[in-house]
């Protein structure tokens, strides 16, 4: 176990597929790392840039990690289907190691979108079914309309 820090904002992990795929905000403390470990997470897919997070610990010291920066509403560039498919490829690679945690900064746009794309591609949900499901299990889900529309292009 890693030394715990004083508790700050609650770090919440939501399971998209129990024992397989989870999502939430960026880990920002040793307590967050401990919570991920307690939930048996072994891999992390980070969708945000280092500058977006105020915790500078190297997560790859604790987990198998991939970082693939996806644009959110603050970026000048739009998310493309090619980038979304690349994120899914990284997710598939990480799943070979075990339980995967997908995060962006606040888990509102990018990480829920990647999880919805996973549900569409690998579990044959329609984009609307994936959105409804994500909104039920992860209350912060809020992709932009143009991001959501990319789900219709997933194959």
**Biggest β-sheet strands, sense, barrel:** 5 strands, mixed
Beta-strand residue fraction: 5-15%
* Morphology: globular
What is the straight-line distance between the termini? 41 Å
CATH level-four homologous superfamily name: Protein tyrosine phosphatase superfamily
CATH architecture type:
Alpha-Beta Complex
Radius of gyration: 15 Å
Question: What is this entry, summarized?
Answer:
This protein is an alpha/beta fold and 155 residues long.
Describe how the helices and strands are arranged.
Blueprint (H helix, E strand, L loop, with lengths): L13 E4 L3 E4 L5 H9 L4 E4 L17 E4 L13 H15 L4 E4 L6 H14 L3 H11 L7 H6 L5
Parallel strand pairs: 2-5, 3-4, 3-5
Antiparallel strand pairs: 1-2
Helix pairs in contact: 3-4
Give structural notes.
With 155 residues, the chain is an alpha/beta fold. It has one domain: Protein tyrosine phosphatase superfamily (Protein-Tyrosine Phosphatase, Chain A, Alpha-Beta Complex), CATH 3.90.190. Helix content is 35%, strand content 13%. The protein is built from five helices and five strands, in the order E-E-H-E-E-H-E-H-H-H. Strand 1 (14-17) and strand 2 (21-24) form a beta hairpin. Helix 3 packs across helix 4. The chain is globular, with a radius of gyration of 15 Å. The N and C termini lie far apart (41 Å).
Core attributes:
alpha/beta; 5-stranded mixed beta sheet; 155 residues; single chain; 13% strand; 5 strands
